[in-house]
Amino acid sequence: MKRSERLKVIETLAKQREDQAAAALGQIRAQVEAEEGRYKELESYRAEYLGYLDGQGGQGISIEQWRRTQGFIDQLGDLMVRQQNAVAQWKEREDQVLQKWQALYQKRKNIAKFIEGISIEEVIAADKQEQQAIDELVSMRYGQEGP
């Protein structure tokens, strides 16, 4: 078995690791989208309740109802801060996994380039051997026929 063929196993393993990192990156990106969606929902609820409070304020509401609604709006604000932190953590994780994937991708490309170089060397060596064999056959034939 040629050296380049043996090295293909290493390239295959590198490709598998790269694919695993790509799959993990996809999952994390989906999670980032989900977390951002939750944040937008909270933002929408908060805006809806603020609108309700503003609308009811013009019509007159009890102080107790205003406090309950304002308390709920404040809780939504706190949840938004926590959710924003969760989004930031997932994005940080996404950056880490992206960097890992990029490193694995580059490593696999380097391995492939190295194997390509080895393959070219093997072809050149095989061509030289073939040319030597042809030269020997020609010289043997020429030597047998005589002058």
Q: Using the 3D structure, state the CATH architecture.
A: Orthogonal Bundle
Helices, by number, come to: 2
Beta strand count: 0
Helical fraction: over 70%
Domain count: 1
Uncertain parts: none
The gyration radius over C-alpha positions equals 34 Å
Q: What is the succession of H and E elements?
A: HH
Terminal residue distance: 43 Å
Provide the structure class.
mainly alpha
Oligomer: single chain
Family: Belongs to the FliJ family.
Pfam family, one: FliJ
Protein name: Flagellar FliJ protein
Subcellular location: Cell membrane
Task: Please characterize this protein's 3D structure.
Its main location: membrane. Keywords: Bacterial flagellum biogenesis, Bacterial flagellum protein export, Cell membrane, Cell projection, Chemotaxis, Cilium, Flagellum, Membrane, Protein transport, Transport. InterPro entries: Flag_assembly_chemotaxis_eff, Flag_FliJ_proteobac, Flagell_FliJ, FliJ. With 147 residues, the chain is an all-alpha fold. The chain has a single domain (3-145), classed as Helix Hairpins (Orthogonal Bundle). The chain is built from two helices and no strands. The chain has helices at residues 3-59, 63-145. Helix 1 packs antiparallel against helix 2. The mean pLDDT is 91.
